[in-house]
Amino acid sequence: MDLLPSVRNFHNSKLFFSKNELSKILSCYSIGVSKGNWKDYAIFFGNHEVSFYMFKHSFATPDCILTKTTKHKKNSIVYNLEFENNNKSKFTKIDDIIALLKRRELHVV
Fold first, then answer.
1. pTM
2. For an engineered disulfide with 42, which of 26, 53, 55, 102 has Cβ 3.0 to 4.6 Å away?
3. Is the pLDDT of residue 62 over 80?
4. What's the order of all strands across the beta sheet hosting 62-70?
């Protein structure tokens, strides 16, 4: 039984959100929580993508999915935003997604 992965099999090349990106995402998430739209979140780390899921309830499907992916050929980063009603948006800057999320959460009454 091998408790530690061997050096050959261990790859620490997973994509992640930077501290600045995560701070912006969590500030938008907190607005949604204060409005009562979201109650839970999850983060998935993969080799070429990282996703932030926002849930209305713990056992529900995600209401909103924010994904950061890399393209192999160009080494560029693309941000995808997908809502429950299948509205999909692609951006190259995290600030554009944050603006869209804030617009969605800050409804004028």
1. 0.79
2. 53
3. yes
4. 40-45, 49-55, 62-70, 77-83, 88-91
